[in-house]
Amino acid sequence: MLSRWLSTAMVVAGLTAGLNAAEIEIRHINDLFSTSPLEDDLYTATLGISTTVDGWTFDLDEYLFTDKSRGMRFDETYLAVARDLLAPDSKWNVRARLGVARVGQGLYGQRLQNFVHSLVNADQLNLTYIADKQSHVFVRLNVERTLKTTERATIAPVLEIESAGFKKHARIALGVHWNLGRGFELYSEAGARFTETNFAPLSPWIKDSDPTFTVGVGYQRYLSLTWTSNYFGTGDRHWHLTARAQWGHAAGKRR
């Protein structure tokens, strides 16, 4: 069931293997054990892979959306390129992302979800994909201003603006990083998300505005585990697992 993602990862690894410096990142988001009242529904999971070469990051992400109450589902598939617009030593971090978003039946979707369900002994799903398939230009801008507070902690106001045609959001937040020593760090963030959509299958579940919360722990940028509330604008909660492999002068640089 994971053959497409594994094939994608192998192609990306092959393209970057001969480079002096590169980074590969694999992401997974899931509402498993999230204690959400809508657990295993709405934005139930995502899977993504990125490669960064010479400051350019190429992303492939797929979000799985299920609506068991109405017996339907859709996937959001994003292909984008991103780059930091300022120097790495700047206290400001401005990152732009541009690409395309495809809504409908994605690359992996229900097959991937049922594969995970088989691993955790959960019920298999057989929901009907929506007939309304759409493609959109996708843009995102992230702005962050780092303020050093102590030797072990930094604080940063965050602004995120995103548009994918069928939905838009803006997020403002305040994040704090703690250096725990020995390569470990702790991260927390609190703010608000403002979301709107003109996409009928998604509209009943989107909240126009709601608080957002994030708590996470990471190890030397190689591995991180994060818990979020209202990450997608539907008010539910998710776990995020990210793994990175770096070599050359890319190691240690921020995303």
Summarize the structure.
The protein is mainly β and 255 residues long.
Task: Give a verbal description of the structure.
- The relative contact order is 0.17.
- It is built from 2 helices and 14 strands; from the N terminus they run αβββββαβββββββββ.
- It is globular.
- The chain has 255 residues and is mainly β.
- It has a single domain (3-250), classed as Lipocalin (Beta Barrel).
- A hairpin with a 7-residue loop joins strand 13 (223-229) and strand 14.
Estimated share of beta-strand residues: over 45%
Under CATH at level 1, the class stands as Mainly Beta
Helix content: under 10%
Low-confidence stretches: 251-255
Q: Give the strand line-up of the largest sheet.
A: 1-2-3-4-5-7-9-10-11-12-13-14
Q: What is the CATH topology?
A: Lipocalin
CATH superfamily heading? Outer membrane protein
Please trace the helix and strand order, writing H or E for each element.
Answer: HEEEEEHEEEEEEEEE
Discrete helix count: 2
Average pLDDT:
87
Write down the Rg: 18 Å
**Through-space gap between termini:** 30 Å
Tally the beta strands: 14
Please, how many domains?
Answer: 1
